């Protein structure tokens, strides 16, 4: 894209100046470019000269002059003019026909516009959501699902081979899952007419959510009174109810995620790591490599052998009773991941931050490069309704479920968009009332309405003037001289960079921000036509109308591409 071309030209000019001895640099730094707010400052600007002042002991304007002197300007170059402004900014004005080049490229590439091979075919395994199979997908889990799903799409868009994976935490020694089975058993007996086995407060292990009763009703429907006289303290009873409850809950989780547009390539069960001995292999590997020791009857993993990874104390990996801890299973799982992929990306809630250092230490101790494991942490989700925050607690029973409490309320598109509006490392507030509005202050409506407006304009040109969208390569695009037109094309030109950076930085919020910005520029362009008939898409001058049809169709293609990456629909009517 044009931004990459300009960065390459500036980098080459810096290299020439360094090699000629005009700039005392050891190495040429990366060049960044921004669009100036005012058109009088050109199409693109860079502050690279200011950033080099300290290293070169030169005035920024003198540095800028050395760079500008070596920039190709005029015939054969995309740069029509290069100016030095203020304390040392370099402002670049492009040749007039570069705008047409952008539209011709979008028209030629269509659905592929924005895609690249920047990922180089790397195999990336993305593990996300991974909610314990003891409850439905909550609104918090929905944020994980939205982030993970869009990051997978972004990584695929830059040429990575992506595996979407869900890790089912069903280890046989899981206290949480055993308590889940016991809770379902208690509810099952309650359905059969037996009161709860306590008269005051429920014990800490009991899950009181309404969904527990739903699971119990499913068990009763399948097995009737077959387990009515079973003993809650019998391990076989707990295991049986846990197994029956898990399978039903996983089926519900899959259905809820599909309703959200999220599907997985692999559902990986933690229990398989224990059953086939891979957990023991991981433990023996750590032993053999000298990273374990015994103390108080337990086996400890020496995570502090890797101080650069940040863990502050060693961890028990096998308890005194011989049961492996969570870190043992996690070590085995990450070994399995790295045997299947070049990169493992984990998307975890912020409450799992303490597991990052010990997981990377386990990877390093087994002989893998810990840089091959990335962890993206996301913060809390708050739901606002009727001006008040809605609280939730799985233990207290008022669980906020992704499907019934959000998707069914605001729709899949709005839910996904709102989840992705902020950086994962920021707390998120979803205003349900705003998400349901069909007005421009609802951001997802505002973006999708831009797509619908384009369809209306294209239909109007065909129905009233008999003119369909022409091919960009066969249209005189030099007629697009209005400032609103240039602003729109510039915004379209940024899309490939936005996709690449969003994938590179694991920053899906860049897409929602780009979509909002691009929609705002389009609405500004369209509204200018409502105020001035000469600026309308369907105007009196047919050559100009044809050029504008190419422009709005390119906008439609880019908007559809970004909505597709976000997993949203691109409606023709609103």
Furnish the topology, listing elements before pairings.
Layout: H1 2-19, E1 44-46, H2 48-51, H3 53-56, H4 60-68, E2 79-85, E3 89-94, H5 98-109, E4 123-127, H6 139-157, E5 161-168, H7 175-191, H8 210-223, H9 235-259, E6 266-269, H10 270-275, H11 278-288, E7 292-295, E8 298-301, E9 315-318, H12 326-340, E10 343-349, H13 354-365, E11 373-378, E12 381-385, E13 388-390, H14 402-410, H15 412-419, E14 428-431, H16 432-435, H17 443-465, H18 483-493, H19 495-504, H20 509-531, H21 542-566
Parallel strand pairs: 4-5, 4-10, 5-6, 10-11, 12-14
Antiparallel strand pairs: 1-3, 2-3, 7-8, 8-9, 12-13
Helix pairs in contact: 6-14, 6-19, 7-8, 7-9, 8-9, 11-12, 12-13, 14-15, 17-20, 17-21, 18-20, 18-21, 19-20, 20-21
Spatial arrangement of strands, main beta sheet: 6-5-4-10-11
**What oligomerization state is this entry in?**
single chain
* Helix run count: 21
Share of helical residues: 40-55%
Spans of at least 5 consecutive residues with low confidence: none
Number of strands: 14
**Which homologous superfamily in CATH is the superfamily of the domain at 443-566?**
Isoleucyl-tRNA Synthetase, Domain 1
Q: Please tell me how large the radius of gyration is.
A: 29 Å
Which percent band covers the strand fraction? 5-15%
* CATH class division of the domain at 443-566: Mainly Alpha
CATH architecture of the domain at 443-566: Orthogonal Bundle
- Characterize the overall form: globular
Secondary structure category: alpha/beta
């Amino acid at each position: 894209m044009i931004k990459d071309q300009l960065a390459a030209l500036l980098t080459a000019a810096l290299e020439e100046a360094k090699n000629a001895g005009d700039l005392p640099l050891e190495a040429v730094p990366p060049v960044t470019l921004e669009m100036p707010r005012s058109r009088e400052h050109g199409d693109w600007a860079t502050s690279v000269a200011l950033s080099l002042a300290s290293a070169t002991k030169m005035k920024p304007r003198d540095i800028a002059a050395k760079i500008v002197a070596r920039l190709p300007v005029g015939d054969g170059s995309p740069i029509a003019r290069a100016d030095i402004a203020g304390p040392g900014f370099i402002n670049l004005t492009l040749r007039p026909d570069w705008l047409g080049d952008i539209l011709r490229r979008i028209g030629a590439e269509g659905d592929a516009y924005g895609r690249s091979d920047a990922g180089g075919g790397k195999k990336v395994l993305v593990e996300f959501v991974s909610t314990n199979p003891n409850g439905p997908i909550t609104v918090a889990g929905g944020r994980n699902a939205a982030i993970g799903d869009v990051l997978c799409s972004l990584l695929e868009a830059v040429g990575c081979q992506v595996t979407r994976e869900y890790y089912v935490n069903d280890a046989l020694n899981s206290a949480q899952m055993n308590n889940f089975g016991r809770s379902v058993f208690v509810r099952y007996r309650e359905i059969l007419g037996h009161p709860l086995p306590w008269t005051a407060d429920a014990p800490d292990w009991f899950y009181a959510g309404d969904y527990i009763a739903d699971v119990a009703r499913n068990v009763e429907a399948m097995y009737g009174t077959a387990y009515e006289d079973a003993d809650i303290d019998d391990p076989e009873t707990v295991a049986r109810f846990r197994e029956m409850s898990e399978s039903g809950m996983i089926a519900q989780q899959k259905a809820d995620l599909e309703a959200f547009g999220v599907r997985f390539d692999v559902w990986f069960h933690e229990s398989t790591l224990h059953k086939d001995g891979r957990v023991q292999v991981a433990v023996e590997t750590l032993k053999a490599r000298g990273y374990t020791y015994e103390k108080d009857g337990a086996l400890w993993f020496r995570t502090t052998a890797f101080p650069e990874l940040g863990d502050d104390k060693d961890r028990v990996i096998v308890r005194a009773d011989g049961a492996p801890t969570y870190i043992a299973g996690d070590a085995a799982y990450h070994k399995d991941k790295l045997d299947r992929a070049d990169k493992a990306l984990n998307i975890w809630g912020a409450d799992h931050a303490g597991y990052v250092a010990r997981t990377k230490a386990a990877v390093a101790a087994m002989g893998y490069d810990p840089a091959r494991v990335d962890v993206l942490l996301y913060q809390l989700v708050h739901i606002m309704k009727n001006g008040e925050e809605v609280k939730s607690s799985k233990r207290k029973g008022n669980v906020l479920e992704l499907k019934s409490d959000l998707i069914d309320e605001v729709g899949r598109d709005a839910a996904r968009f709102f989840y992705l509006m902020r950086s994962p490392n920021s707390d998120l507030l979803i205003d349900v009332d705003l998400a349901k509005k069909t007005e421009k202050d609802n951001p997802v409506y505002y973006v999708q309405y831009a797509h619908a407006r384009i369809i209306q304009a294209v239909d109007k040109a065909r129905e009233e003037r008999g003119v369909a969208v022409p091919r960009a390569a066969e249209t005189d695009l030099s007629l697009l001289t209005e400032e609103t037109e240039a602003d729109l094309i510039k915004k379209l030109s940024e899309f490939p960079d936005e996709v690449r950076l969003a994938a590179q930085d694991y920053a899906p919020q860049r897409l929602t921000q780009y979509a909002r910005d691009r929609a705002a520029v389009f609405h500004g362009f369209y509204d200018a036509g409502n105020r001035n008939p000469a600026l309308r898409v369907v105007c009196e001058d047919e050559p100009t109308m044809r050029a504008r049809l190419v422009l709005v169709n390119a906008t439609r293609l880019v908007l559809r591409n970004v909505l597709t990456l976000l997993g949203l629909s691109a409606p023709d009517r609103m």
